[in-house]
Each structure stands twice: as C-alpha cells, then as structure tokens.
C-alpha cells in the first residue's frame, strides 16, 4: 500500500503518503489520489508527507495531485508527518510549529 486515506466530517479528504516515493511508485500514488478526488469530490484535500525531506518522486506525485485539484477548484494542503492540520477553510487552530503549505508552495521567501 502506498497511501492511506480518510474522510473527516467536513468532507475533507486526508491522504497519508505512507513512505517516500520513488520512480516506480510515484504514478501509482498520484493515480490513487486522483481517483479518490474524482470519485468523491471532497471540499478540500490534505496530504501528509512521509518523514524526512520528500524525494523528487514524492514531490512529483504531489504536484500532479495539486494540478488536478486546482483544475477542479479543490484546495490542496501538504503537511508533514503527524501534523493535525485543519482543512484550508476549516478551524483556524493548528498544532504549534506546523505551517500550511498551500499548493506545495513555500510561503517564507
């Protein structure tokens, strides 16, 4: 299994990438995320990345999912492991030290 997912009470799809992706499984992960989004049309998507710096393949799968979500006007947020990030339009409180990366873009430059 490459990803796991859950829908919360607000219609937010929360996807966890279970391990860092490589070239052999990045397309499968992106397709799984895209299938979930297409089938369920969530109000937002939150993707939790695996521990450590993400590999280029992990970022590629995230970028592909982000492009799809953007084309459907569904907000996508990427978080680090174990973060309790709310949906982009949801509750304003977050775990101290976490910061939302909307559409995978860094906000500190």
User: Please, how many helices?
Assistant: 2
H-E order: EEHEHEE
Q: In CATH terms, what is the architecture? A: 2-Layer Sandwich
CATH homologous superfamily (4th level) name: STAS domain
Strand residue content: 15-25%
Overall geometry: globular
CATH topology assignment: Transcription Regulator spoIIAA
Q: Could you give a short account of the major beta sheet? A: 5 strands, mixed
Kindly provide the name of the CATH class: Alpha Beta
Kindly give the count of domains: 1
Instruction: Name the helicity range.
Output: 25-40%
Main β-sheet, spatial strand arrangement: 1-2-3-4-5
- The pLDDT mean sits at 81
SS content category: alpha/beta
Low-confidence stretches: 90-107
User: What is the oligomer described by this structure?
Assistant: single chain
Notable features of this structure?
single chain, 109 residues, alpha/beta, Transcription Regulator spoIIAA, five-stranded mixed β-sheet, disordered C terminus
Structural commentary:
The protein has 109 residues and is α/β, with parallel strands linked by helices. It has a single domain (3-102), classed as Transcription Regulator spoIIAA (2-Layer Sandwich), CATH 3.30.750. The protein has 2 helices and 5 strands. Strands 1-2-3-4-5 form a 5-stranded mixed β-sheet, with helices on one face. Helix 1 (26-40) links the parallel strand 2 (12-17) and strand 3 (44-48). The longest helix is centred in the middle third of the chain and has 16 residues, at 56-71. The protein is globular and about 30 Å long. Mean pLDDT is 81; it is low at 90-107.
């Amino acid at each position: 299994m490459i990803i796991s997912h859950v829908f919360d009470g607000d219609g937010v799809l929360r996807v966890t990438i279970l391990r860092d992706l490589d070239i052999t499984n990045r397309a499968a992960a992106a397709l799984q995320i895209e299938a979930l989004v297409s089938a369920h049309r969530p109000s937002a998507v939150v993707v939790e990345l695996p521990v450590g710096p993400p590999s280029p393949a992990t970022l590629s799968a995230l970028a592909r999912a982000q492009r799809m979500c953007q084309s459907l006007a569904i907000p996508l947020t990427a978080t680090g492991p174990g973060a309790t990030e709310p949906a982009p339009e949801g509750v304003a409180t977050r775990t101290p030290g976490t910061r939302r990366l909307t559409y995978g873009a860094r906000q500190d430059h």
